[in-house]
Amino acid sequence: SQPTKISLQIHPYGKKRKLMITRDVTAVQLAETMRRDFVANVSHEIRTPLTVLSGFVETMQSLELSEEERQQYLGLMSQQAHRMQTLVNDLLTLSRLEGSPAPGPGEWTGTQELLEHVVQEARGLSQAIASTPHRIEPSANSASFWVSGAKTELISAMSNLMSNAVRYTPGGGRIEPGWRINDEGLAEFYVSDSGPGIAAEHLPRLTERFYRVDRSRSRETGGTGLGLAIVKHVAQRHGGRIDVQSTVGQGTTFTITLPPTRVRTTAPD
Ligand code: ADP
């Protein structure tokens, strides 16, 4: 639709001047549509596990179950409750990131320490979900320097990329994270995987909330569809960005880039 134009006549010092106020209706409508889509998505994401959960409750109320069956049902119910918890946690994380000011220089953390933390965590996840564990090794070229910002946010962004690599790469696959300083002096955290890759048409939309390439694969592995939206927010709040390069059938590399103000190569005091 066309933008509305509202003209006001103002007369400073008796002189007649015209002030145009332009309100872009298209942008307002778009924001409203996005808000509505978001609410619909959240409702849908909560309704699915809730329906399954209440189904199990009804079954348990109406059937005589053996102890083994009872344990099995309770296990499945607990999975659904866990799924809702993860979703609510991710939603809260997103809203906190959106509503609070950008983190100041904050504390300096060594890239080595950050890397070790997320590698350990990813190995744990791989053991829990893959029949053959992934080969998760920091890149041999990974550089050692210091980055500044909100440490817990940086770790959560790195962890999200690592857990995606584990969740979408078949067991036994290779996952290689690392830090480097690129030619422009920007710090980059990267994770390469030998997974299925992502077709080009999906790449621009990956950081949209609830956007998934393969809905069932995401659900099976406990995905909320919010991980990359969180990563993007963390990167942007630190003055940086997220990028992705992918070749179908070969693998994917996600990169978080931080500006030079957030990097130092000598030990902080
Ligand atoms: P999800 O919780 O579904 O993983 P994300 O926002 O983290 O949500 O990721 C969005 C989508 O991007 C995923 O559903 C998946 O289709 C795709 N994706 C993310 N990381 C990878 C990866 N390393 N390899 C293949 N596909 C990926």
From TrEMBL:
<keyword id="KW-0418">Kinase</keyword>
<dbReference type="GO" id="GO:0004721">
    <property type="term" value="F:phosphoprotein phosphatase activity"/>
</dbReference>
<keyword id="KW-0175">Coiled coil</keyword>
<keyword id="KW-1133">Transmembrane helix</keyword>
<dbReference type="GO" id="GO:0006355">
    <property type="term" value="P:regulation of DNA-templated transcription"/>
</dbReference>
<keyword id="KW-0592">Phosphate transport</keyword>
<keyword id="KW-0902">Two-component regulatory system</keyword>
<dbReference type="GO" id="GO:0016036">
    <property type="term" value="P:cellular response to phosphate starvation"/>
</dbReference>
<keyword id="KW-1003">Cell membrane</keyword>
<feature type="domain" description="Histidine kinase">
    <location>
        <begin position="41"/>
        <end position="262"/>
    </location>
</feature>
<keyword id="KW-0808">Transferase</keyword>
<keyword id="KW-0547">Nucleotide-binding</keyword>
<comment type="function">
    <text>Member of the two-component regulatory system PhoR/PhoB involved in the phosphate regulon genes expression. PhoR may function as a membrane-associated protein kinase that phosphorylates PhoB in response to environmental signals.</text>
</comment>
<protein>
    <recommendedName>
        <fullName>Phosphate regulon sensor protein PhoR</fullName>
        <ecNumber>2.7.13.3</ecNumber>
    </recommendedName>
</protein>
<keyword id="KW-0597">Phosphoprotein</keyword>
<keyword id="KW-0813">Transport</keyword>
<keyword id="KW-0472">Membrane</keyword>
<keyword id="KW-0067">ATP-binding</keyword>
<keyword id="KW-0812">Transmembrane</keyword>
<dbReference type="GO" id="GO:0000155">
    <property type="term" value="F:phosphorelay sensor kinase activity"/>
</dbReference>
<dbReference type="GO" id="GO:0005886">
    <property type="term" value="C:plasma membrane"/>
</dbReference>
<dbReference type="GO" id="GO:0005524">
    <property type="term" value="F:ATP binding"/>
</dbReference>
<dbReference type="GO" id="GO:0006817">
    <property type="term" value="P:phosphate ion transport"/>
</dbReference>
